């Protein structure tokens, strides 16, 4: 789940600075905004694939989020995040555009460098949008091109991040994972905050990354998220700590804690076995605790965490690929690769917002 | 009156003096004409007599004033009060009419007299041109204005450089007559540099300037 | 040998003895050309900067646009190019009211993120520059099909290779083209732009006079030789050709060297200019992109045109003078009929009467041109006559003084064109100084009145700081919202409620009981800009869009709003406090301790806010003001200097002409220094006469600039302040420049008898 999209959406709507909230240490991301509740995330209308790969116009915010842990032939890491966000902006509907704003983030980390690009475009202008057959998401010359109608994967991803050009083939062998109840993911105990949320954590990727004229043949694994909702973008939602983990034994874990104003934080997740079978975890079953903070762009960021799921004998400690994994976008957040050790080893991605 | 003694002048770069031990005496009311080949030093002599230039040696006394002892400012005052100069090119003040041109020197000296000037101009045949702009006059008329200007303030010495050089024969005659008669009448010493034998012959003393010295003709 | 060749040889032979004549002609034209080049380069550089879209650090100077009027840039073109990776293209169009609508989202992508959460820097700067979003523009019946895009701005600094790549990818009907968008942001930059244009036009006018004056002087100098050549049997047409050939040769020489000198000067002072522009326009000064070759070709072409024009003017006069063997030939008669003077007086009267009828910016600028030309006609027709009348009053008791005045009259008759150039420069200089001084005075007065609090807060804080519970001292918020009133984009701004603030609003017109109507939300105050744009008056009704639709309000007062390019309406605070989009500023009645506390609080609550004392705000505003006009002051001075130099050259030539007369004066006992003093007094006489003639025209010019040009260009005016000190200072500077030049030594004045006096 990518909370950054919510952040961005709110900021776009308001074009305002954030204001200090009551919650010490957290900044409210949705100043003045309310969830529009135009469409309802409801178990009565569960996620249906492949049709739900496509954009959902009725919902306020939506994102397609890919994280990849890649290596070149020399074993050098190339950790890549590609995200497309869509925001319903009916007041922008005009003879120019459709009233939907797309935002793209493309972030590549190597050990030494970070390449980051951010784009904005309006649906209906032809610059950004979606086509069903074959399935294609595009924003300028960034493109997620599916090979079959309606099918998200296999696909070719073409994108760039500053001086880096990315061209990857993506495929997955296991079925998609629906989070929560048939894809309805509750962010708070009372369900006030929720979204449609499914993932494909079994992505295999290979291709080329050209950085500063040097071409690298890369391959690795990845995780894909797709979320959409009208019950999340609210001024009382403060921030999130989110993890996607690839266990060495083939399992996957999605875990996050959501923080709300005037309410308790809520932790939930999904444990996925190697065949794609899922178990939804509640706050009693999943513990997330920040261990160590570091100064990143003059902010105190908890870069190391402990994560435990006692019922599955999972107790791990995460550490970041590197400390400085800050996306200095117009709506900044922490997003980067991690590795973990403890009862189990593996690697993944971490996203921290609201800091 | 003019008294020149052993005047010498050599220009820088020249191999020999242009005026070489020249002496000349012209009493009040007397006239002298100086002829000579082109470039023999006639204009230089006039310039020395007028105090426009300084000699290398010798003395010049004009109306009792030793010129070589005068400062620039004193020389200016001297010219204003004692000297009348007639140029070949007239050098009239073009912004003035005839009357104001002629009156200029007298006003400078402070002896402007309307009646006297009127008479002078009438005698010079300029009675109908008092208000005429000088640029509208013929060459002869302009020269007569120049002569009138040189005489109007009653100088003791009149120096004339080719006063009839630009005039036809008839006008030359009448202008020469006027000039010589007036100087004699006023008791002014007149030195005329001229190419014209006719003009030269009217002077009481006639000289030829040759090799820097005057030879009586 | 052809007679033309022989005549030319004879002409050139005079250079050996009288080289100063053609040299001074060349110098005069050189000065005019250098001045015009310098002003043109400054203008194109500054205008280009003004007209450039600057997004962050990127200067946008190119765009993709349709090759011809028959085709246009479509949305599909835009998408197609961006999909190919040319994501630096940003679609824009020019709205019917001359505004700019852009694809704001595409602009968002081009700026690096500030790194702060939800940075609104770009949108506010886009809004500040007065740009609309394309979504706002393409509404209802306005579609990209019915109202095409103007182009795709290239928001990037592209290398030649990148440009080539783009060029290769363009569809056949599109091209890469320079982009000039005029951001109608600050009123000061608009003023600046207009000033630059005016200075350029002024310099051109002055240069025209200077060139013609120089050619006229050459004609006067050559006439005696031409007469002699005519007598020797060379035909008139050949003589005219000879004259014009020499004129063109000298004009070309002077103008080409002038161009090089002007360009070199600007290159040299570019760093200094850059500093000014960096502050003023937030960008670099790049002196004009005109190529030197272009400038040189233009100079040669203009020289040719001037000479040909001269040929047409003097043709018949020359013919007559050659026939009459008259030395007095010039392009213009020395004396004019009383008839011409009478006609001129009539024209002056008509021109004065026409002033109130001016109804547009273009008319105002044309009218100014007419005024300057009428002024020049006054100089030509009246100055010599006036001087002659004055001269006649001078007694001849002091003969040298008498001669000085009369000679001044003669000089003035022969320097009419140079005097005209000087007159134009002086009139413009004084007029613009009066205008700027009035503007400055009005602005300072207005600032002092409107800024009522000791401290002001400027911030990007999203909410309302004044409503924060822990604010240390009360803050008076200035609420704002932008709406369209009668199709005009208008700012709604709040004005504090309280009788103590009433005196702070300077009003040009006000209705009876205005304030009670204001507080009762029945009436509103509007600024001059709105009143003049839409011809609103006190008593008219305004339909203001609100949340529930349009609300009618009576206009109860009109106030001056200097420096604001936009229309504005003032509403009571209560009308906007719950209904605003932004808070543009806060006023705080804070003492020193309170100010510190406020500062500390702001650093936590709204970091990046600026806390400015009233005095500092006024000082900063006036500093920006001064710097804005610094360039035009400089250009004014350049024009003044050029005209003065030309006048100096003219007079020098003429004085050399009368050197025999000066030698005559020496020979009759007038000392050299007295002659020089006399000449200097003559220059003073002419210059002061010119200045006195220029004064009424200068004041008229100032009035026109304030009440017509400014009124129609920017829709607001300010009171014209006639400060005698400013007027005197401007006159003295203009005169001073000229007289300092004139005081240069004229060379030795020695009496001589030589028969070669003509060679002197």
TrEMBL record, chain B:
Superkingdom of the organism of origin: Bacteria
The keyword Mitochondrion is assigned to this record: no
Keyword Metal-binding: no
One Gene Ontology molecular-function label: ATP hydrolysis activity
UniProt entry keywords in alphabetical sequence: ATP-binding, Lipoprotein, Nucleotide-binding, Transport
Record domain ABC transporter: where: 2-217
SMART domains in UniProt: AAA
SUPFAM superfamilies: P-loop containing nucleoside triphosphate hydrolases
Family stated for the protein in its record: Belongs to the ABC transporter superfamily.
Protein name: Lipoprotein ABC transporter ATP-binding protein
Organism: Alteromonas lipolytica
Automatic annotation (TrEMBL), chain C:
Keyword field: Cell membrane, Membrane, Transmembrane, Transmembrane helix
Subcellular location: Cell membrane
Stored Pfam families: FtsX (PF02687)
Membrane topology designation: Multi-pass membrane protein
Keyword Oxidoreductase: no
Residues that span the membrane, as ranges: 20-42, 196-221, 242-270, 290-314, 342-359, 365-390, 417-436, 634-656, 683-706, 726-746
ABC3 transporter permease C-terminal domain: residues covered: 636-748
Gene Ontology cellular component annotations, sorted alphabetically: plasma membrane
PANTHER family, sorted: BLL1001 PROTEIN, MEMBRANE COMPONENT OF PREDICTED ABC SUPERFAMILY METABOLITE UPTAKE TRANSPORTER
Name of the protein in question: ABC3 transporter permease C-terminal domain-containing protein
Source organism phylogeny: Bacteria, Pseudomonadati, Pseudomonadota, Gammaproteobacteria, Alteromonadales
């Amino acid at each position: 789940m990518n909370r950054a999209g919510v952040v961005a959406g709110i900021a776009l709507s308001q074009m305002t600075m954030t204001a200090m909230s009551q919650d010490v240490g957290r900044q409210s991301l949705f100043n003045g905004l309310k969830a529009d509740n135009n469409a309802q995330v409801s178990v009565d209308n569960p996620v249906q694939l492949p049709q739900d790969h496509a954009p959902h116009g009725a919902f306020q915010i939506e994102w397609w989020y890919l994280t990849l842990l890649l290596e070149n032939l020399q074993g050098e890491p190339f950790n890549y995040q590609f995200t497309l966000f869509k925001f319903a902006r009916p007041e922008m509907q005009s003879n120019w555009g459709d009233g939907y704003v797309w935002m793209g983030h493309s972030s590549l980390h190597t050990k030494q460098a970070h390449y980051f690009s951010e784009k904005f475009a309006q649906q209906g202008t032809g610059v950004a949008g979606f086509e069903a057959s074959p399935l294609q998401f595009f924003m300028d010359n960034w493109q997620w091109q599916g090979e079959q109608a309606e099918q998200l994967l296999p696909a070719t991803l073409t994108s760039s991040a500053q001086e880096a050009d990315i061209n990857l083939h993506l495929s997955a062998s296991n079925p998609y994972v629906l989070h929560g109840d048939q894809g309805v993911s509750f962010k708070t105990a009372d369900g006030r905050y929720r979204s449609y949320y499914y993932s494909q954590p079994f992505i295999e990727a290979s291709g080329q990354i050209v950085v500063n004229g040097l071409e690298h043949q890369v391959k690795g694994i990845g995780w894909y998220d797709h979320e959409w909702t009208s019950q999340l973008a609210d001024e009382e939602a403060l921030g999130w700590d989110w993890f996607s983990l690839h266990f060495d034994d083939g399992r996957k874990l999605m875990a996050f804690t959501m923080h709300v104003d005037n309410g308790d934080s809520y932790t939930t997740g999904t444990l996925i076995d190697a065949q794609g079978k899922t178990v939804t975890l509640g706050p009693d079953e999943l513990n997330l605790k920040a261990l160590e903070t570091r100064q990143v762009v003059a902010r105190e960021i908890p870069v190391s965490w402990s994560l435990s799921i006692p019922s599955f004998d999972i107790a791990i400690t995460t550490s970041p690929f590197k400390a400085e994994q800050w996306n200095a976008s117009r709506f900044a957040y922490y997003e980067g690769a991690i590795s973990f050790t403890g009862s189990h080893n593996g690697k993944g991605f971490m996203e921290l917002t609201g800091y | 009156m003019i008294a020149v003694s052993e005047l010498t002048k050599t220009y820088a770069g020249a191999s020999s003096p242009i005026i070489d031990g020249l002496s000349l005496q012209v009493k009040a009311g007397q006239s002298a004409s100086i002829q000579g080949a082109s470039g023999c030093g006639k204009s230089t002599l006039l310039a020395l007599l007028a105090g426009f230039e300084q000699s290398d040696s010798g003395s010049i006394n004009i109306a009792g004033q030793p010129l070589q002892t005068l400062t620039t400012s004193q020389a200016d005052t001297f010219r204003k009060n004692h000297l009348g100069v007639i140029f070949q090119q007239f050098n009239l003040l073009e912004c003035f009419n005839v009357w104001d041109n002629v009156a200029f020197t007298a006003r400078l000296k402070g002896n402007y007299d309307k009646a006297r000037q009127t008479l002078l101009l009438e005698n010079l045949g300029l009675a109908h041109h008092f208000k005429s702009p000088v640029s509208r006059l013929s060459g002869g008329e302009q020269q007569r204005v120049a002569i009138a200007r040189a005489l109007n303030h009653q100088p003791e010495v009149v120096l004339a450089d080719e006063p009839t050089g630009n005039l036809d024969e008839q006008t030359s005659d009448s202008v020469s007559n006027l000039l010589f008669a007036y100087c004699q009448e006023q008791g002014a010493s007149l030195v005329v540099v001229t190419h014209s034998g006719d003009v030269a012959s009217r002077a009481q003393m006639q000289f030829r300037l040759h090799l820097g010295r005057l030879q009586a003709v | 040998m052809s007679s033309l060749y022989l005549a030319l040889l004879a002409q050139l032979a005079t250079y050996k003895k009288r080289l100063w004549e053609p040299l001074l002609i060349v110098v005069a034209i050189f000065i005019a050309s250098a001045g015009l080049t310098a002003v043109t380069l400054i203008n194109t550089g500054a205008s280009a900067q003004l007209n450039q879209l600057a997004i962050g650090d990127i200067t946008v100077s190119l765009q993709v646009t349709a090759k011809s009027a028959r085709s246009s840039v479509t949305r599909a073109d835009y998408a197609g190019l961006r999909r190919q990776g040319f994501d630096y293209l940003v679609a824009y169009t020019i709205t019917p009211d001359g505004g700019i609508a852009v694809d704001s989202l595409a602009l968002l992508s081009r700026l690096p993120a500030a790194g702060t959460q939800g940075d609104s820097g770009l949108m506010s700067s886009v809004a500040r520059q007065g740009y609309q979003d394309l979504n706002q523009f393409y509404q209802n019946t306005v579609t990209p099909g019915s109202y095409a895009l103007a182009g795709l701005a290239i928001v990037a600094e592209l290398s030649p290779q990148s440009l080539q790549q783009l060029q290769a990818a363009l569809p056949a009907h599109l091209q890469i083209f320079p982009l000039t968008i005029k951001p109608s942001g600050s009123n000061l930059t608009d003023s600046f732009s207009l000033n630059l244009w005016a200075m350029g036009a002024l310099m051109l006018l002055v240069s025209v006079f200077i060139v013609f004056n120089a050619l006229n002087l050459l004609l006067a100098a050559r006439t005696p030789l031409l007469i002699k050549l005519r007598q020797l049997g060379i035909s008139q047409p050949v003589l005219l050709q000879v004259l014009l050939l020499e004129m063109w040769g000298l004009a070309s020489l002077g103008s080409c060297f002038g161009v090089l000198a002007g360009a070199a000067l600007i290159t040299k002072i570019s760093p200094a200019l850059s500093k000014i522009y960096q502050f003023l326009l937030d960008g670099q000064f790049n002196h004009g992109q005109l190529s030197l070759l272009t400038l040189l070709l233009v100079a040669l072409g203009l020289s040719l045109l001037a000479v040909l024009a001269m040929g047409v003017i003097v043709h018949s006069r020359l013919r007559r003078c050659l026939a009459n063997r008259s030395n007095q030939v010039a392009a213009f008669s020395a004396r004019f009929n009383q008839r011409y003077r009478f006609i001129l007086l009539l024209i002056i009267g008509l021109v004065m009467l026409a002033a109130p009828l001016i109804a547009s910016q273009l008319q105002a600028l044309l009218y100014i041109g007419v005024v300057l030309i009428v002024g020049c006609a006054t100089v030509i027709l009246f100055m010599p006559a006036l001087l002659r009348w004055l001269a006649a009053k001078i007694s001849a008791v002091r003969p040298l003084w008498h001669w000085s005045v009369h000679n001044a009259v003669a000089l003035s008759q022969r320097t009419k064109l140079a005097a005209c150039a000087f007159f134009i420069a002086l009139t413009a200089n004084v007029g613009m100084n009066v205008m700027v001084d009035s503007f400055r005075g009005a602005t300072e007065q207005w600032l002092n009145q409107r800024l009522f609090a000791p401290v002001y807060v400027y911030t990007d804080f999203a909410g309302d700081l004044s409503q924060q519970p822990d604010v240390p001292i009360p803050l008076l918020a200035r609420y704002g919202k932008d709406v369209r009133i009668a199709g005009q984009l208008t700012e709604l701004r709040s004005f504090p409620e309280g009788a103590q603030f009433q005196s702070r609003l300077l009003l040009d017109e006000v209705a009876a009981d205005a304030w009670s109507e204001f507080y009762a939300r029945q009436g509103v105050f509007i600024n001059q800009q709105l009143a003049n744009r839409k011809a609103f008056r006190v008593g008219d009704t305004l339909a203001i869009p609100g949340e529930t639709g349009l609300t009618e309000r009576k206009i109860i007062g009109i106030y001056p709003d200097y420096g604001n390019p936009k229309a504005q309406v003032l509403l009571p605070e209560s009308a906007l406090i719950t209904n605003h989009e932004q808070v543009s500023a806060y006023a705080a009645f804070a003492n020193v301790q309170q100010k510190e506390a406020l500062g500390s609080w702001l650093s936590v609550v709204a970091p990046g806010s600026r806390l400015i004392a009233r005095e500092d705000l006024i000082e900063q505003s006036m500093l920006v003001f001064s710097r804005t006009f610094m360039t035009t002051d400089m250009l004014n001075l350049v024009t003044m200097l050029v005209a003065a130099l030309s006048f100096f050259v003219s007079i020098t030539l003429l004085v050399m002409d009368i050197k025999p007369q000066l030698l005559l004066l020496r020979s009759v006992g007038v000392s050299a220094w007295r002659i020089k003093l006399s000449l200097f007094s003559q220059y003073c006489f002419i210059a002061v006469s010119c200045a006195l003639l220029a004064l009424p025209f200068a004041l008229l010019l100032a009035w026109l600039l304030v009440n017509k040009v400014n009124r129609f260009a920017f829709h607001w005016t300010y009171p014209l302040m006639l400060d005698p000190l400013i007027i005197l200072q401007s006159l003295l500077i203009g005169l001073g420049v000229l007289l300092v030049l004139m005081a240069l030594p004229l060379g030795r004045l020695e009496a001589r008898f030589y028969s070669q006096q003509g060679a002197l």
